[in-house]
Specification:
single chain; nine-stranded mixed β-sheet; five-stranded mixed β-sheet
């Protein structure tokens, strides 16, 4: 109809537009953030890192659909914090809108926990080092259940347990038919963070419940162990060198992807401009009300700047497409970036045999206000300024790194 209203079929009653109840709105929003067990695992791993953890352990039952538990040794939460932990938009990290623009942490516990509580049975056990006892709390639809929080036995840190995922959305629950596939997704996310944070002294364990053997254990790696002890003791950071951090990451790559990969790794280090200076200029502009959309290249807050470090396999090594790994972290967040991936694969295209693929791990830092992590509910995809120029610059650096390698080029051809 021309007035924009929907036509009602003959014989039917007129439909009235109504605002959805808050409970349904929250559940719909939660379903966008919590798409499957691995999306919860990613959010909670990031929360554990924000808490200053040196150890993060993930345990799954039936792929995480029946139970997903994440335990860390971080700073923990107070009894008062537990009351707000699963309330939407409750956080310890944001007080103004400007804080959202400048935040460098991964998000806030309330976002992931609130969403999880809407579509599962959520419980938290936490203890701060200064507290005499731990506290436990259970939540339903973002609300604290009656009788909680209550004192409990526990060690320093936090354990988040998500049970019966999508129990209240039967159609979504039925769509998950392969527990092994869901567990492998959780394991994949954990492995990527294990590589990325090895140099920061964070060790990871991932396993299935009631299984003695673990599928991931970077806490057992010698250099990672040493950095974990250093982190827990809060020693002077100057005693840890960049070589130590790179060695720990290479150990983690070997543990996860195989020693044959770690033996062929080259160190990538490139950058342009002053990330810190551009970030500060951008933050000041935001405080003054300047938009970060249509940018003027002459203004300092829009200057091109980035730092990039990483590990890439040399031109003599390649894996089958099904085994290829491409790990990208932007400002310490695991993301996908199709443009950057294509630019780097184009560099290897002329060097590797047909269908050969490299191993690539990139740790990219760009000015915080230049990145929008909220373009997708799961924060997996990001948007940022100067994307084309950035992809070109990093691709050039990868090509130079490969060309400077003195490794002889020889390939093993499968019979």
């Amino acid at each position: 109809m021309s007035d924009g209203t929907a036509s009602i079929p003959s014989g039917s009653t007129s439909a009235t537009i109504r605002q959805l109840p808050e409970e349904i709105v929250n559940r719909i929003a939660a379903g966008e953030v919590v798409q499957r067990p691995s999306s919860i695992a990613k959010e909670l791993i990031e929360n554990s890192q924000d808490a200053g953890s040196s150890s993060i352990e993930i345990t799954c039952t039936k792929g995480g659909m029946e139970s997903l538990q994440i335990t860390d040794d971080g700073c923990g939460m107070s009894k008062a914090d537990l009351l707000l932990a699963a309330v939407r938009f409750a956080t310890s990290k944001l007080t103004t809108f400007d804080d959202l623009k400048s935040i460098r942490t991964f998000g806030f516990r309330g976002e992931a926990l609130a969403s999880a509580s809407m579509v599962s049975k959520l419980s938290i056990l936490t203890k701060q080092a200064s507290a005499e006892v731990a506290y436990k709390c259970q939540y339903t639809d973002g609300e604290v259940e009656s009788g909680f929080p209550k004192a409990a036995a526990g060690t320093n840190g936090t354990t988040v347990r998500v049970d019966n995922l999508f129990y209240n959305i039967p159609s979504r629950r039925k769509s998950f038919t392969r527990d092994s596939e869901e567990y492998n997704r959780v394991l994949d996310v954990t492995q990527r963070y294990a590589v990325h944070r090895a140099g920061d002294g964070i060790g990871f364990i991932c396993k299935k419940a009631k299984q003695k053997m673990v599928d991931l254990n970077t806490k057992s790696l010698p250099t990672v162990q040493r950095l974990m002890r250093h982190k827990k003791a809060k020693q002077n950071s100057s005693s840890v060198t960049e070589q130590d951090k790179v060695k720990a990451k290479k150990e983690a790559v070997g543990h996860v992807f195989g020693v044959e990969v770690s033996r062929e790794l080259l160190t990538l280090d490139c950058g342009e401009g002053d990330v810190q200076a551009v970030s500060e200029a951008a933050f000041k502009a935001l405080q003054n009300g300047t938009a970060m959309t249509a940018h003027d290249p002459s203004l300092p807050q829009f200057n091109f700047a980035y730092k990039c470090s990483g590990l890439v396999t040399n031109a003599s090594y390649n894996v089958k497409q099904s085994s290829a790994a491409f790990l990208i972290f932007i400002n310490d967040r695991l993301v996908d970036c199709t443009g950057l991936k294509k630019a780097i694969e184009a560099v290897y295209y002329d060097l590797l045999p047909m269908k050969g693929k490299p191993f690539v791990y990139l740790n990219l830092e760009v000015p915080g206000p230049h990145v929008d992590v909220n373009v997708h509910p799961t924060k997996k995809e990001v948007a940022f300024l100067h994307e084309d120029r950035l992809c070109e610059s990093i691709a050039i650096a990868v090509r130079k790194t490969l060309s400077s390698s003195t490794s002889s080029r020889s390939f093993k051809v499968a019979s």
